[in-house]
Structure formats: structure tokens, C-alpha cells
Amino acid sequence: MRFDARYYGGGRGVIDGNWGERLENVRLGLTVALPINRYKSVKLYGSNNVYTKTGGGFDVVGIAWQLRWGGGLRTRWPKKFERRQNGRA
Known about the structure:
The chain is an all-beta fold. It is 0% helix and 60% strand.
């Protein structure tokens, strides 16, 4: 599970030579990954607009299927990295 908070600030629009307000946005989000097996998981995520000074606020909800492949899936180290019986590496 992961919780995150984001703050965006900066930038101004100019219309007919008149500067607009500074853009600001605060968001809160949550992500949960549910393992199915060693190679697959389902990720649920959401993000909510908490504060917007100017500009559009929006909310996000989603689901993702994750598939892992490639190296790094070993349950044991390769023989060449294991410690020898006599204690020498």
C-alpha cells in the first residue's frame, strides 16, 4: 500500500498583457497492489484533488494488471555467489 501527497505550484497565464493568478494544486493518492502469484498482480489506484487555486481539478480512479518477466525472479542465489562450506567467498 502506498499513500502519496503532491503539491504543484508555479506558472501564470497572460491574457491581453494581464497576468493571471499563480497556479497551485494539491492532490492526495492511494495505490494498492494485490499479488495474484509470483508473476502477476492487480494494482488499484486513485487520486483526489484536494485544493486548486486556479485551473481545473480532477479525480482519478484506475485498475491495472501487472505482469513481471525477466531476471530477478530467482528464489536462490546462483552457485557462484553462494558462500562456500569452508567460509571463504
